[in-house]
Amino acid sequence: xxxxxxxxxELTWVNIDKLDNEALAYLKENYNFHHLDYEDLQGEVQTxxxxxxKNYLFLVFHFPHWNSVSQKVKSHxxxxxxxxxxxxxxxxxxxxxxxxxxxxxxxxxxxxxDWMQTxxxxxxxxxxxxxxxxxxxILDTIGKQISELENEIYSGEQDTKTVKExxxxxxxxxxxxxxxxxxxxxxSNLTHIRKSFLDESLAIYFDNVSDYLSKIWSIxxxxxxxxxxxxxxxxxxxxxxxxxxxxxxxxxxxxxxxLTLLSGIYGMNIAGLPHAQNPFWVxxxxxxxxxxxxxxxxxxxxxxxL
Length: 306
Hints:
Blueprint: E1 3-8, E2 11-16, H1 21-30, H2 35-42, E3 49-52, E4 56-67, E5 72-83, E6 86-91, H3 96-107, H4 109-116, H5 120-133, H6 136-154, H7 160-190, H8 203-267, H9 279-302
Parallel strand pairs: 2-6
Antiparallel strand pairs: 1-2, 3-4, 4-5, 5-6
Helix pairs in contact: 3-4, 5-8, 6-7, 6-8, 7-8, 8-9
């Protein structure tokens, strides 16, 4: 069953891990929510938001989720209804983190009493704090991968694979920031809302979550700057290596031009060419020309022009 209910005194927590017809029927039968909220529930992925009504709040959260198979940061949406005596969490895709949180609250009576005895606002704080703190291992994974890639870059390994890995890390960091940024304003708004189920005493708790999000935001800023710096470094090193290859090819091409010209002239049937009837001197001219070219190349290398 996708609907799980947990009660503690006057507070009811309804956790829906799959939004289907059964879940919608349950919500419509037991709660009087605005029809636009139901449209939002059934629509495409919503942008994070908070709708304030007279008797309840409707919130849309996005939490970062790490897909270990694709090595990508995904967005996990959780919709929340909160009012006097109830908190409803709705997942569009199952979340292992929320499942663990719910069962921890179910099996541990002390935790259940601590999290649910002071109302839905405190339970929402506990839930959001836990979900956002679960994003720290994602950042740690990305940071470790960036450090390993940085060591590879400065050890002399720069190729198309390195550029692709940098692009993947940049995409993950930008996706993480894209998810995180609206949540900062959403949590900040929660600290200023005053309802019977969300009183002033909870402001300090949501401020704590807001401070944590600011810390995470600073870390993503650092990673973004690191990725940008590594990208510039890799481009410079690859361009430098390409320029060296082009320089070598240019030297070879220019060095062969005099010899090509000389062989072209003596390859034609033109009467009166110097030493045309004496192969020894013809070969000496080629050797002399080649020696001159090698001396010029050696001088240029000594002066570090090549």
